[in-house]
């Protein structure tokens, strides 16, 4: 049974449909015209969606995949294709792909004639659980991830498990970290969504019990995706543009994670592995600050270990301590010049302004990392 | 006496200050860091604003002026400068310039870290009366004006008459057309703004009486700017993203005007001259459709003539009829595949969907233009 979730992000509305099958073109408004965007890995998925509709009213653009292609060149290619197709501002940008492709297509749609229509078919676990929902678009600039971007939620997001059939192992691991993050942020109210009935905290236990393997039978995975979508949707609804402090909670694990990604060199550590390692750091900082209870930290670390994530400070890949330190201290998410950290608390997570105690923890972390 | 107008555009707030003097840096939040943007013509104005504040916390970027430089290259230069300055998302983009510069700086600010702070000092009559207010940003792409853009209203807009001291004659003419357009769209409610007390319709009469010359004494010009700002602000408040039909009224004269600009070749006819000619066409179409009363059309045509605008169909510059026709029929503002025209009515203006009658008028216009 497909389940549907509707969110209001400021003046935008997003509908998420979680189900087994890919949508067919009849379910997606393709007229008067549609630019379909994919990369070389997701082209077969897009072809399956478009089917017989891949005729003259639909133009398919295949972009090169990977973070190294997440630059202005790709945005330009999308805008040029839209222009050649003669797309109006009521035309549809339909993208099938992972986080990189969803971010690029979302950005291009947001600026084309100051905003065209946008539908996403995320094809990785990471994009389904996190990247495709919530309106953040962007591309990399001057070596900085997503330095340029917009807030532009997709109208429709089709989370189809069928799209995961050919997903590589590494991509599973990258997506599961965001699901674990969502489980840490789960609140009682998030369980109220239609088709989703877990008790708060149950998701984290379910992740621990699964012990690093997605159960073959039952709706386990769609339940977990529903949980991640519900958690993220609720947070973004409360604070769409991260002007308050609610949306910043989604950065749990990301300040440390982004710094690790940068310090290991772009593409060496996957986003999910970096976020998982970052969540472990957030637990340690939370312990040092007396915010994260011992049992809670242990439960989170257990789940991370169960799913095969590296949680100890010295990372098995070479890490440049200078870049790491600099990345932490110049974090894009800083507010009014100050850095904020997200650390797990007894039942969720909370924001901590950079202070003497966080400084002490960071100094220890920098020292340990150099060993 | 400076007057201040506050508008709410969706989730954004804009404050417009109309006054004699340029702001000084103390009035603009320059900390923790500010990227100041200008072109070679407006650099002296920016220097006057920054004064002693032009120190290490402020970096000034001078862009090449003109529509031909309104491309991605200029956006990229702004983003690179912001990055080198280490601007955070709470950093300020401060731009002093005409419509092109305001659009470019606004776009760059809107995408830098998904949205930095933005303050504008419009330095042309056109930018003061129209371009700087209302949130439309953009740059030209593939030869199409503002094909890429965002909706991102500036927090503060300083309309300082002092900035007009060195404005060339051609630029005055370009801006006055938008003021005439605003006067046509003026409603009773628009007179309620603080510091502005004209009767509806009085602005159009005042423009006719001035007879093509800005009166040297008295607050005539600041009154007219207050009228234009009030009219535009009210329209944009009612329909920030042009999802309804209110904001589309601001396109009065622009469908025909943009087509003329394109058909004469970029830069040959100024935006204001093209808009004035377009308003004349809108009057003629409105007459043909029985929407614009004869007296109203005559009053508008009189004002256009008084200010020296060319209003007859054959334009004194070479115009490519094929480009003109194509531009009208592929107008960016089209909705659901259809084109809409704005024509003056008895007391304001209204939208007309393209139909048999507009088609008949267009065919006559295309024929007359080829003569």
Q: How would you summarize this macromolecular structure in one to three sentences?
A:
2 copies of one chain form a homodimer. With 371 residues, chain A is of the alpha/beta class. Helix content of chain A is 41%, strand content 17%.
Describe this structure in words.
2 copies of one chain form a homodimer. Chain A has 371 residues and is an alpha/beta fold. Chain A is built from 12 helices and 11 strands. The first copy, chain A, has helices at residues 43-50, 72-85, 99-111, 125-131, 169-185, 202-210, 220-238, 254-264, 271-288, 294-306, 321-329, 356-370, and strands at 3-9, 12-19, 34-39, 58-63, 92-97, 117-122, 139-141, 144-148, 156-160, 340-344, 349-353. In chain A, the strands form 3 sheets. Chain A has a 7-stranded mixed sheet with strand order 1-2-9-6-5-3-4. A two-stranded antiparallel ribbon of chain A has the order 7-8. In chain A, α3 links the parallel β5 and β6 (117-122). The model of chain A has no long low-confidence stretch (mean pLDDT 91).
């Amino acid at each position: 049974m497909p389940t549907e979730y509707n969110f209001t992000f400021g003046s935008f509305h997003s509908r998420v449909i979680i189900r087994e099958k890919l949508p067919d073109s009849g379910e997606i408004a393709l007229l008067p015209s549609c630019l379909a965007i994919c990369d070389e890995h997701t082209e077969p998925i897009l072809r399956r969606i478009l089917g017989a509709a891949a005729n003259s009213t639909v133009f398919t653009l295949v972009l090169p995949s990977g973070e190294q292609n997440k630059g202005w060149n790709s945005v330009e290619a999308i805008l040029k294709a839209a222009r050649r197709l003669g797309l109006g501002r009521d035309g549809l940008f339909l993208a099938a792909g992972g986080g990189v492709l969803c971010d690029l297509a979302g950005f291009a749609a947001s600026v084309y004639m100051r905003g065209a229509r946008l539908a996403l078919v995320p094809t990785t676990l990471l994009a389904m659980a996190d990247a495709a929902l919530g309106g953040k678009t962007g591309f990399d600039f001057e070596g900085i991830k997503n330095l340029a971007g917009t807030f532009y939620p997709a109208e429709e997001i089709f989370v189809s498990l069928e799209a995961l059939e050919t997903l590589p192992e590494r991509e599973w691991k990258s997506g599961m970290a965001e699901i674990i993050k969502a489980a840490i942020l789960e609140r009682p109210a998030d369980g109220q969504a239609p088709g989703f009935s877990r008790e708060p905290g149950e998701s984290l236990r379910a992740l621990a019990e699964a012990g690093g393997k997605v159960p073959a039978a039952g709706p386990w995975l769609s339940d977990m995706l529903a949980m991640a979508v519900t958690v993220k949707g609720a947070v973004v609804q409360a604070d769409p543009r991260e002007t308050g402090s609610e949306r910043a909670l989604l950065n749990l694990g990301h300040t440390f994670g982004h710094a690790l990604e940068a310090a290991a060199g772009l593409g060496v550590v996957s986003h999910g592995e970096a976020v998982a390692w970052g969540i472990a750091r957030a637990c340690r900082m939370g312990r040092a600050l007396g915010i994260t209870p011992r049992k809670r930290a242990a439960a989170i670390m257990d789940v991370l270990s169960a799913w095969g994530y590296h949680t100890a400070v010295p990372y098995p890949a070479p890490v440049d301590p200078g870049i790491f330190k600099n990345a932490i201290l110049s974090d894009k998410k800083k507010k009014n010049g100050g850095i904020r950290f997200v650390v797990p608390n007894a039942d969720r997570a909370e924001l901590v302004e950079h202070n003497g105690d966080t400084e002490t923890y960071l100094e220890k972390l920098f020292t340990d990392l150099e060993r």
